[in-house]
## 1
Amino acid sequence: MNRKIHLLVIRDIMARRFQFGALAIIIALGIAIFVSMTVAFTNAERSYDRTYEATHFADFSVEVAQAPESAVDEVRELANVKAVEGRVVMDTGLPVDENRLVQARLIGLPADRRAAVNDVIVESGRYFEVDERAVVLPLGKFADFHGYESGDTLQVYTLEGLKPLTIVGTVSSPEYLLMAESKQDLLPSPRRFGVFFVPNAYLQELFGMQGQVNEVNVLVESESEREDTIAAVTGLLEPYGVQQTVRQEDQPSKATTELDLESGREFAVLLPTLVLVIAAFAIYIAMSRLVRAQRTLIGLFRGVGYGKGSIVVHYLLFAVVVGVVGGSVGAAAGYGLGYLLTGLYADALAIPLIAHEFQLMPIVISVIVSLAVALVAAAAPAWAASRMLPAPAMRPSPEVALAKGSVPFVERIFGLGRRPPLLVRLGVRNIWRAPMRSLYTVGAIALAAILLVVGLSSFDSMDFIMDRQFEKTDRWDVAAAFWSPQDDQTLAEINGLTGVREAERLYLTPAELRVDSKRTNIELMAVEEDTRLHGFDLGGGKTTGEALGEGGIILTLGVADQLDVGVGDSLDIATEVGISSLVVSGVSREFTGGLGYVSLATKDELGLGDGFNAVWLETTSPSADAEVQAALYRLPGIQGVQVKEDIRDDWREQMALFNVMAGVIVAFCMVMAGAIVFNTMTVNVLERERETATMRTLGAGRPSVVLMLATEGLTFSLLAILPGLALGTIAASYLIHTWSSEFFTMWFHMRTTTYAMIAVVIIVAALVSTIPSIWHSNRMNLAEATKVLA
Amino acid sequence: MSDETRTAGEKGRSEAAGPLLLEMRGVSKIYETGQVQVRALDGVSLALQGGELVVALGPSGSGKTTLLNLVGGLDRPTAGTIRYGDTDIASLSDGDLGRFRRDHIGFVFQFFNLIPTLTARENVEFAAELVSHDSRQMEERVEELLRLVGLEERADHFPSQLSGGEQQRVAIARAMAKDPNILLCDEPTGNLDFRTGQQILGLLQKLTGEQGKTCVLVTHNTAIAGVGTRIVRLRDGRVQSDERSANPLPASEVEW
Ligand SMILES: Nc1ncnc2c1ncn2[C@@H]1O[C@H](COP(=O)(O)OP(=O)(O)O)[C@@H](O)[C@H]1O
Ligand SMILES: [Mg+2]
């Protein structure tokens, strides 16, 4: 290692600093993505965990119709129960202005002490004081959105009409880190839904439940015995009407954030892997060129007595430098970026306790991985160098040895009749002269195309899915839900409202589906058999009328996949009135998971309540939506009204953030594609310096040289585009498919124009990246370059 | 353009000089490398005439290559003028220099510099295409040149399949393809064994003697000097002597 020749490594690298710089950048990009995402997600995960711990997040909750507080005390005595809290949870309405009602979830908390399970974190103001009554702690997110502060008074609907509650502070809750009303609520928005903590005793009073609770939250001693405990607790509470048991991992906020983290972590490995594969290609290409360029020097080294081992070590040292520089720059940048991302993520989700802890592991992994990638890539060129004969300096021209000189097979086929012009022939043969390198080059450009497809298809797919959801699936304009079932008189009243063209009845209720050992919670929607306001996509075969008419259940794709059932299978359905069996009569391709559809008649057969508790409305025009919404709010018993366009706007807002991220990915892909093409074209042109100089010396003008090099860059990109787009499509479909979950189903979709755009981007990137080479060729000192040996 | 020179040259090589073709006056070239200035050429005046085979002789570093580069329009002098016909090539733009090279100069390099991906014929065609737009005429010329250098049999071979001497012959055919008035050869035999070198020198004698081309051949090898019709000795960037030789040696009698 202390041999003099190794000092040359730094000098050689400095002499080719742009090229080695480009290589280090590609490695750094890959490492930076890995480190930043890993750091951010680990930070987020730890923040969640801290929050869960600090607030004693329940291991499971049991919802009951109504149970006496004494039952909660009995639960406390059960084995493996560490702590338990009984509370009232009530969904009601809260007017935020004259025409708008948000759905308010009121949750009881003890006023004389802090809850032992599912406590809150006070963000501003203070917690309740002993014996306080008409006070409220809204979630910070809700208060911020509507501009509420401590001291403001809110009105909520109770059994005795509107009642005032005074805000004493704002909080965050482990159950509502993501303020989702339910698992089906994919787009939680404080516009429609808010969570409010109220002294439990006062809440009991407001809803006539003195001494009673309807939810029991439990913390267990031993995680592994939780199922037994659940059985014991539900057994104990059975007499009080157990409606649902929600395990921590199924809890909407927890499940969604967990899923987020999971797909994030997958991405944090997959993307860097792709980038590092590309880096390896680029390093291999550059190192092969270096070894060829230095054959004389290698001959000299061997001549003066350096052994093969020294030569191998010498060339591996280049890789070590590139790996260490790229790896450490990437790790440092990634670490900084990771903190930034953690902050953004924490902001976006309002994680209360942000954990910024030093993480050694991502750095260690980065260093090892970047070194390994560089070493593996340089191994073959270094080995080839060590096997060179000691006296290649005798060879006048390395190019002659390089180019075997044969008429390529393609040319023989296509050049049969009229021979193509010399410059075109040259371009084609230049690609043929180093077939392996050309293959790598095409491969590298293709990988850039793949990354672009993956990056851009996320835009297109989201657009496509939104379009599908809002145009094809949800065909209603306004939807409304009632607290309790309504009769046909209400329907007539709704139909009579100005601006309403047609109303369809609906019945919504939570249900649990069970097949063998698999189970999932869904929202069961009973709809009109001939519904026009919801578009099913059953994939041919049965019509919606047939599927609903025969008394079966239509599942959304996400649910069917999760339960692993198909049309014709039967399943058990547990609702508030008991367990029945249904046959799956259809699987609908819809974005939203967690839904099942039956006809209103089937609903009656299941024994669920009479009439309907929700409606879908078609309005006469979009401008009538607001008026219809206001009119609906004035109906008695209304729980909430949604305007589709508002939801769509929420989506667009959410997508704006998503678009920024996708935009970053695309920009990054382009930088990388540029670096790759730059590296390859630089190598190609450097290698042929003498040849190009000779052409210019003979009097070939700059335009001919530009034409030849541009033809080459263009040919590479043209060869790469088709396979790149094809493989990119496969990779993107796979990735998008993996994002699908029980909550939603995603489809790959990409516009033809996007494909075309990627092709153009690749071609432009290839041509732009040849500019430095063309520039170099045009500025070459011809007198010198025609004589260079290497 | 070359009709005049050709007729002049065809009168025979013993006849000392054809018409004036190119004239260097007080040409100096100074290279600046960092702090150091290298005076590669120092006030050189030299006139080239049609049909001459000028051997520029000098030790390594004496400025031979620099001289060729200036005559060939690869570089510009620091001082002095280089007239070719009515133009001072020292004052031409890059583009015009390129055209000057294309139209009037043929280069033969020590390391041949053939384009490895083109066959012998295509290498010659590459140069021919630069000046000719009539493809039939061009093809005929290429065949003729390959015959001239004795390579018609190996025309479809790639450089890697040719020996050094064969490669240099292709290079000469390539230089001739544009029918230039001036042929510049920098150590054309420097990389060849002596028998092959003889062939190359013979070829250059033939081109100057029979076709009236002017050839400047640069070498550090004194033995070669005899083949020239004129011998210019360079030392430290200056012309030390400039002699015409009434009876150049035939290439076959040169030995080294
Ligand atoms: N591009 C250059 N930069 C600096 N010095 C140069 C350059 N080219 C040639 N020289 C110097 O000019 C002198 C003449 O060089 P050259 O014409 O190549 O000599 P010859 O061909 O006779 O060996 C030498 O001292 C050489 O080092
Ligand atoms: Mg020289």
## 2
Amino acid sequence: MSLSRLWNTARPFCSVITWTTKSPLSTLAVLQRKTSAVNVLSIRQFNKKPSRSDKSADQKNYTYYVMSLVIVAIGCTFAAIPAYRIFCEQTSFGGLTQVAKDFDKIANMKKCEDRLIRVQFNSDVPSSMRWEFKPQQHEIFVHPGETALAFYTARNPTDKPIIGISSYNLTPFQAAYYFNKIQCFCFEEQILNPGEQVDLPVFFYIDPDYVNDPALEYLDSILLSYTFFEAKSGLKLPDPFDPKNRPSIAPSPDKVPEKSN
Amino acid sequence: MSQTGPFIRVTTVSAPLKGSFPLDHEGTCKLEMLNYMVCLHEKKQQNSECRDVAKDYFECRMNHGLMDKDEWQKLGYGDTK
């Protein structure tokens, strides 16, 4: 139902209501006066010539508005510098993932006595990897700003040399941001001869800025987990650019099982 | 497990500062390592108490060519000795 039809149907009801409350003559008079007043006001508004005092007051208002805008803009430019820095730190935008790690920082950092962080150690191997790999200590209590040493042990019980390569993981992620490793045994191939057992040290420190992070105020436990994978060295994968290595329908000679004597 | 979002710190697995420890195949520094483990066990896994023993371990490593020689200050042992 359109609006005009609605209004037409409602109008008799409205008039009924007004009849019940007031006399029709008075309502009519009131209506007439109101409409005339509205008309007069609108006409007055359009015909009004702005007087001199009004003009200067208006100009003053405009200048105040513009000046306040300018001041706010200048304030924004001043505030943008620390705001951008905080934004970059929080979101690790543009690769600024961690606090600067270098030897000068390690040399100058101060130990924070009031926080004691418990670093727990975990080790994993995939089921196909036949090394025995475990940490020598379950946990170690470290102050932020202090370098610490921890050990893992790996043993090769088989009769073949096995090459392993490890990766690590740290939880919780907020705390992992402050965990820096000076030297460890990850990401490089380590070969273990048959029956050999070797100690793998991890030399790390927790950044002293750990105590300044409000999200880490009640977090005192970090888990460091290493996983050792087997690296098959000497494995020659087929070269994708080799012209002989092309898919073909005809069975290639080396795929057919040879019956050799 | 890996969260993504606008305000989440991206934790990337990064290389260690001094690289990787060469493996101690012959077990030349095993004694120092065991001393360190015993110290940790005695002092209830407190790292602060056993820093001298850790320093001995690093010295052993450096003397036998299993670690690059570095000043103690750079390894965070400037205050000891």
